[in-house]
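User: Could you walk me through two proteins back to back? I'd like the raw sequence and the structure tokens for each, with a short line separating them so I can tell where one ends and the next begins.

Assistant: Of course. Protein one, sequence then structure:
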Amino acid sequence: MGSQFDLGSSGSRMRLRDDFISGLEYFKCDDLEAALTLFREADESAAIDDVYQNRYTSFHGLARVFMGDPRGVKLCRKAAVGETNDPEVYCNLAMAENKLGMRESAYQALRRGLRIAPEHAGLLQMKKDIMLREQRGLVEGLKSGNWLNRILGRLVRGARQP
């Protein structure tokens, strides 16, 4: 999770809220409950014209998803609607979608984020991870999209579920 989080401002005259920055520290230490409380506070208390409002909302949603609340992805999606400057919003959306098993949606969020910031380390790493996962299949030498791998994958996944 770590290195993609920007603790400073991104050249804007506005600074990130202190409660949000504290929330990031808790988030990095996997104290999701404390992070969620601070992210919610930042999200709900930010001024209407705060340039980081979408970032606050996206981290609020991401923390919810990581705590097991799949409805948190709705906050991440809300933050991404119309976002044109902040790649962190798309990185968070991609992480949330990926965590919930929505790989195609995660990949769309990655592409949108990389259009804003082609060198964003977190987005590039996630893209690499998703692509590696897609290339592996159950039958060595066949891509995961091959019909045989898809059928075997369904059988194996179905056998693992209680």
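----
Protein two, same layout:
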Amino acid sequence: MSGWQWFWTVVGFVLFIIVLIFLYYYAPFEQLFVLVLNGISFSNVIFWAALIVGIVGFCVFHWHAYRLHVARQHSVDVMVLSSLRGSTFIAILLSGGATLQSLQILCVYLLGEGHLVDAEFGKRLGAVVALVVLTALFCVIFWLLKVIRTETRAA
């Protein structure tokens, strides 16, 4: 890094720390943070793990695709197709994580005391089926984007 890049990186980092300190003491943000984190527990840890992996994977994939296709190859069309494919894969990851989470919630519900097969079971089973269908739809879209990519390479 050159001198100016280093300087602006340090300035950006200091500004980021100042914003975090401000948000820590800003009461409406604290209330929002507590409201959002109120729903986090071990019962939905599968989805949160998939979400964190998905966000990190999304950022890393798009940065890599940009460096490869735009910076080196100067091909924006291939970059867009690659980004669509990567985004679809992340959608598969997120919907698959949500499916696993809803299946886990359904199993915990069934193993609980006094729970029989009732309307609540039907709602939870319907959520699992809907998420499986959504995951399958994203898999088909991913496959189609993969086919399109190989077709454009052949042409």
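The CA atoms of residues 29 and 38 lie 14 Å apart.

Let me know if you want the two compared in more detail.
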